[in-house]
UniProtKB/TrEMBL annotation:
Entries under SUPFAM superfamilies matching the protein: CheY-like, Homeodomain-like
Modified sites of kind 4-aspartylphosphate: D54
Domain of life: Bacteria
Domain HTH araC/xylS-type span(s) in chain numbering: 428-526
Domain Response regulatory: 2-119
InterPro entries (alphabetical): CheY-like_superfamily (IPR011006), Homeodomain-like_sf (IPR009057), HTH_AraC (IPR018060), HTH_AraC-typ_CS (IPR018062), Sig_transdc_resp-reg_receiver (IPR001789), Tscrpt_reg_AraC-type_HTH (IPR020449)
The protein, known as: Stage 0 sporulation protein A homolog
Molecular-function GO term, any one: DNA-binding transcription factor activity
Native source organism of the sequence: Roseburia inulinivorans
SMART domains reported in the protein's UniProt record: HTH_ARAC, REC
Length: 539
């Protein structure tokens, strides 16, 4: 492994040469360079694996070197060093394919960590290149073919499983019927909760998982296969021919969890399966999936699924349902919401709720809400919006956070749909309050407090009655009053801004132009012509 260091300051070069334990990193050769031109010569004459370069240098800088490397030697893994945490530098370096970015001064340990990640990248790319040289995968379909092959290991059809095993052997994965196997399921909550296309994120995650496994000792003779299942959970197939996998310490799995949490997100859970044989893979992944589904509280942690959890087979919520029904029928919506959320927090703290018991609770709550809607002639479908759909509500039984979101949405929605004349009067009162206090910087809470309603409920009620949210309405009222005041040539525009509560003249100009498509000065000129009147700078 060869590393090229580039920095115009010789003391920095010396520090990097002497302060890092390259032998421990298995870096055989370190080449120093004090200029971009010298670095290019060294790259042309040597097989460079990793380039670590400063950005700010006289003459050509590090970004220009990176551009040259990306065009001529794209296999070199590049790390940028800089003394300025400038986002534009980071953004440009990413465009040029930079692997990592370290802000100086940085501890040598941080630089060693960056080099470890780069080394893992070099090894991974070397393995990929070997696959390509063997002609076993086409570049455009490699990931798709790999995923299909791995998923076929869990197929119900024995012929599919045998074919997958054969294909893996052909690409140098020595999986066999006698291999010791362990399955790992990774649930990254921001990924599984995201409904958008995440193909790019998928590739990044796979690389981080691969790097983390390598850094934590999951190396040959232990092999790994990584795929993404239909539930957006990553599945890792660890296997070895011999005792290497079964002899791996529990601390290695904890280290992997910590490393991956740091690399991707702390909001994740990793589920470790039992040691199994090839013939047990299908039943084992089903067992792990059941364990994952029953973790309805989604508490981030490392779980060894061999330790079966004791869940409550049912929950007696009859008294709670009766209490919630009384609160709903007496229109005590805020108390109802508070009571249900408190109960969800309570059962989450006990950590004995599984998918079945949470599903039962969701069904009973749905029955409570929908019967009330029917009795009060509320169209259930009208309760839902593009932001929160009926289907999302009906799927909210899968975890406690989803059920909290569902309850927090549907109770205010029912409240709004059951709105009385007095509540409509509250909207009218709020509109008058806003008009009479345009000089104040009113918040949603200020307006809601004035009409003695909660901000959450009043926001929905106002939107339903007026057709726009409170903040937008306040801005609209201010601009309409501004237009009237601008018709008077004796009032300076800066005074108009102050009268409407804008201490920053530029901010007033931006708000006015956003709503009217024209600046206050130009608006005044349009309605008054070029007559002389007090003017203000809008710069």
């Amino acid at each position: 492994m060869t590393l090229l260091l580039v920095d115009d300051q010789i003391n920095v070069i010396n520090g990097l040469m002497n302060g890092i334990n390259y032998r421990k990193l298995e870096i055989d050769t370190v080449l120093p360079s004090t200029s971009v031109q010298e670095a290019k010569t060294l790259i042309c004459e040597n097989q460079i694996d990793i380039l670590m370069t400063d950005i700010e240098m006289p003459g050509e800088n590090g970004l220009q070197l990176l551009h040259w490397v990306s065009e001529n030697y794209p296999d070199i893994v590049c790390i940028l060093l800089t003394s300025h945490a400038d986002f534009s530098y980071a953004q440009e370096s990413i465009k040029l394919g930079c692997f990592d970015y370290v802000v100086q001064p940085a501890p040598y340990q941080e630089i060693e960590d960056a080099l470890l990640r780069a080394i893992a990248k070099v090894h991974t790319e070397a393995e990929k290149n070997q696959y390509y040289k063997d002609g076993l995968f086409y570049t455009n379909h490699k990931q798709e073919l790999t995923d299909r092959t791995i998923l076929n290991l869990f197929s119900q059809n024995p012929a599919n499983r045998q074919q997958a095993l054969q294909l893996l052997n052909e690409i140098h994965y020595p999986l066999s019927l006698q291999s010791c196997i362990r399955l790992i399921s990774i649930d990254i909550y921001p990924l599984t909760d995201n409904t958008a296309d995440s193909s790019l994120v998928d590739l990044v995650m796979r690389q981080k998982i691969t790097d983390s496994l390598r850094l934590c000792g999951f190396c040959k003779p232990i092999y790994n296969l990584i795929t993404l299942n239909t539930s957006k959970r990553f599945v890792i197939v660890l296997f070895a021919n011999g005792d290497a996998l079964s002899n791996l310490s529990v601390s290695s799995y904890h280290a992997f969890y910590q490393q991956l949490s740091k690399q991707i997100s702390p909001e994740m859970s990793i589920y470790i399966g039992n040691f199994i044989s090839f013939s047990e893979m299908r039943s084992e992944i089903h067992r792990i999936d059941t364990f994952v589904a029953n973790n309805v509280n989604k508490k981030p942690s490392l779980y060894f699924t061999e330790q079966e959890k004791n869940f409550a087979t049912s929950m007696d919520v009859a008294d709670n349902i009766a209490h919630w029904n009384r609160l709903l029928n007496s229109e005590q919506y805020e108390k109802l919401l508070e009571s249900i959320l408190s109960y969800l927090d309570f059962i989450a703290s006990l950590n004995v709720t599984n998918l079945k018991t949470l599903c039962d609770l969701h069904q009973q709550l749905t029955q409570l809400f929908f019967i009330y809607a029917y009795q009060h002639e509320i169209d259930v479908t009208s309760l839902f919006t593009e932001e929160y759909s009926y289907n999302e509500y009906m799927d909210a039984f899968k975890d406690t956070s989803a059920l909290r979101k569902a309850v927090s949405f549907i109770i205010p929605a029912i409240h709004v749909s059951s709105g009385s004349d007095s509540e409509k009067g509250a909207v009218s009162l709020a509109k008058k309050y806003i008009t009479n206090n345009v000089s104040l910087n009113l918040s949603v809470k200020d307006v809601a407090d004035y009409v003695h309603l909660s901000p959450e409920y009043f926001t929905k009620l106002f939107k339903k009655e007026v057709g726009q949210n409170i903040k937008s309405y306040i801005l609209q009222v201010k601009v309409e009053i501004a237009k009237d005041l601008l018709g008077n040539p004796n009032i300076p525009i800066s005074m108009v801004a102050l009268d409407l509560g804008y201490s920053n003249f530029s901010h007033f100009t931006q708000v006015f132009k956003k709503l009217e498509g024209i600046t206050p000065t130009d608006y005044r000129k349009n309605i008054l012509g070029d007559n002389s009147f007090p003017s203000d700078s809008e710069s």
